[in-house]
Task: inverse folding
């Protein structure tokens, strides 16, 4: 085990140095920290409203693979991830 000797450093100076280093790391963390947001799921009706299309178009886009659907087993309900839909909107608007 290594030992460190502090010469001509008071306990208060050592404490201040440690506090400054910790505060610096906390500030870096605050600047770069992005909390992960929970994924939001939309129904077929909400997707149709978002794209301003019919439910049949949502169905066709899903069958063609343009939209990826997520189902809840046993309930028959279909949902779509908002983040994936927003990415698709960006692609559509770029073309």
Result:
């Amino acid at each position: 085990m290594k030992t460190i000797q502090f010469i001509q450093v008071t306990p208060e100076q050592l404490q201040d140095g440690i506090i400054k280093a910790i505060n610096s790391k906390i500030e870096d963390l605050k600047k770069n920290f992005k909390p992960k947001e929970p994924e939001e799921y939309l129904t077929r009706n909400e997707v149709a409203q978002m794209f301003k299309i019919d439910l049949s178009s949502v169905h066709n886009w899903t069958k063609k693979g343009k939209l990826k659907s997520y189902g809840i087993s046993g309930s028959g309900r279909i949902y779509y991830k908002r983040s994936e839909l927003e990415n698709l909107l960006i692609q559509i608007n770029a073309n």
Observations:
- DSSP finds four helices and three strands in the chain.
- The longest strand covers residues 78-81.
- The two ends are 63 Å apart (CA to CA).
- The beta strands are 41-43, 70-71, 78-81.
